[in-house]
Amino acid sequence: MSSIAYAAGLSAAMWRRSLNEVVRVRGALLPTTVAPIIFLLGTAGQFGRLSDLHGFPTTSYLAWVLPLSCLQGAGFAGGAAGANLARDIEQGWFDRLLTSPAPRALLLAGPVLAAMTRALVPTTVILSVGLIMGAGLSGGLAGVIALYVAAVWFCMIAALWGSTLALRARTQQVGPLIQNGVFLAVFLSTAYTPLPLLQGWLATFAKYNPVTYVLEMARQATVTGIPPSWAHTWPGLLALAGMSVLFGVLALRQLRRVTL
Amino acid sequence: MSATALDQDAAVQARVVAALAARALRSQLRRAQFLLPAFLLPLLLLAVIASGTSAARHLPGFPSTGAYVGFVVGGTLVQGALLAGLTAGVALAADIEGGFFDRLLTAPVQRVSIVLGRISASIALGVAQATLFLSVAFVFGARYQGGVAGVLVAICIAAIAAGGMAGLASAIALRTGSLSLLQNLFPIVFVFLFTAPAFFPRALLGPTLRHIAVFNPLTYVVEGIRGALHASAALGDPWKGLVAATGLLLVTTALSVLAMRGRLRAL
Questions:
Q1: In 3D, which of A117, A114, A123 has the Cα closest to residue A37?
Q2: In this complex, do A46 and B198 lie within 8 Å of one another by their Cβ atoms?
Q3: pLDDT single digits (tens) A112-130
Q4: Residues of chain B found within 8 Å of residue A135, distances taken between Cβ atoms
Q5: B181 touches chain A (CB under 8 A)
Q6: Are B39 and B132 in contact (CB under 8 A)?
Q7: Which of A66-75, B40-49, B141-150 has the lowest average pLDDT?
Q8: Mutation test of the interface with chain B: which of A47, A54, A61, choosing the one with the most B Cβ atoms within 10 A?
């Protein structure tokens, strides 16, 4: 068997095992789906009039926050992969995997791939709820593809971040820290209003927060003022690639440090 | 029983409530899993909302309260009260799962004192939270036209609301005894919060939310807090806030006492 086929087979086995979490554990997807939906409906109702402001790129605030909630749901799904890894470490399962002849990086690849698959569920459910509530798909198919790419890739980054913390802390108590990290990354961006309407410290922070550009990419699906174009896509892709390299290196470095 | 014996019994139970409240408060302040949601999360949301939505001041009809943070801090107090209450329920569920609650039941104390101790701790926590949040907002530019009296009334309303939410969370903890269920109730906090005009004036909420808000007691709590802080009847009536918070406290305390009785019957 070639090394590529071996790696693919092993990753697929780990991917299937991680997906069992979704299939066999009743309600495993609820926290990653329900919380963003509550946030979506609450924020749209609470701050809906912000879209009346001059310079707001859409007349529907729901359309503005819908991609944010999709990203949030996908990010939480990625964070859950880290929390599950922490549980596997605490219960000794991960140590047994480490004694196997499998390359260590592949032990991480399966759960990360499963998280990316799992992210499709909250993204689709949240998007459907938003559409039912009246947000339109102004960006058409190209916008929807941009939204899904942004959400699934962001989930991968959240999974790498979660895995890094899980490998370092080796305890399930790290779970809230993982999810709060995702929460902060998303909210310290253009979560509520576009950059020109942000004021104070958040305006500066959001400008340098890569998630701002990932959100811009995702918003091509529903925000009329951000039509699908390469100009709205490449900064998001660059931000995702940069975060992937950073958190990928951190996760692998942490994985190499694990001793039996 | 003579009047003196009754007085002595009341004094003993008051000491029991105080001791249990002190223990609950210590455990909530010592453990990061309780401390972070109750103190850090509301402050983070205050920072993000105060900066992220401050352009709302330019909307026609948005009330003037000086710095925008002075308007949204009322919502932060309510969010803190909700989280303080919920963490009380989480701590109680942890006591039930860990067996400490069963040991308490074998002690010669009235069962209702156990519930009251937990709720009293949340009221004290509510005072600490509200004081911290108002101080932080003040440092970042909020000014309270209601003066010291207004600030004290706002703290009082927030603390009673925290006790009310603790009563509700304790009732759920006593009814189910499930720590994981209580931990998964965190999103519900945001349902209560977002169906009240926590961060936006009621007149500027979406039409559906505006109708729902009428039935949420936290609407009157947050408006009462704003009215007290800024000495403005247009922002809210502090008396209505006090009545809503006290009503919430009484109803949820009764619910938790009933849940306690139900739990004892099942033993």
A1: A123
A2: yes
A3: 999 999 999 999 999 999 9
A4: none
A5: no
A6: yes
A7: B40-49
A8: A47
Integer CA distances (angstroms), A70 to A76, A120, A128, A240, in order: 10, 9, 10, 16
Residues on chain B touching A32 (C-beta within 8 angstroms): none
Q: Whole-angstrom Cα distance, residue A192 to residue A124?
A: 21
> What does chain B come to in residues?
267
Give Cβ neighbours of residue B107 (< 8 Å, ≥ 6 apart). none
Number of independent structural domains in chain B: 1
Distance from the first to the final alpha carbon of chain B = 29
**Number of domains into which chain A is organized:** 1
Task: State the residue range of the domain holding B40.
Answer: 3-266
- Under DSSP, the state recorded for A259 is -
pLDDT at position B130: 96
pLDDT at B250 over 90: yes
Chain A contacts of B209, Cβ < 8 Å?
45-46
Amino acid (one-letter) located at A160: L
Asked if the model's pLDDT at residue A96 lies above 80, the reply is: yes
- Identify the pLDDT of residue A223: 96
Q: Which residue of A has its CA nearest to B45?
A: A187
Residue A185 CA: distances (Å) to CA of A62, A157, A211, B194: 20, 11, 7, 21
B12 CB burial (10 A radius; 0-12, 13-18, 19+): middle
Q: Please compute the mean of the pLDDT values over residues A27-33 and round it to a whole number.
A: 71
**Number of CB atoms found within 10 A of residue B214's CB:** 9
Distance CA A246, CA A210 (A): 12
The tokens describing B41, both together, are 């999360």
Helix (H) and strand (E) counts for chain B?
Answer: 12, 0
Q: DSSP label at A198?
A: -
Per the CB < 8 A criterion, the answer to whether A157 and A240 are in contact is: yes
Query: At what angle are helices B111-139 and B238-266 packed, to 10 degrees?
Result: 140
Instruction: Give the C-alpha separation, B54 to A47, whole Å.
Output: 11
Q: Minimal CA–CA distance to B249: which of B112, B99, B106, B120?
A: B120
Q: Which residues of A touch B204 (CB under 8 A)?
A: 49
Residue of A nearest to B186 (CA): A35
Residues spanned by the domain of A107: 3-257
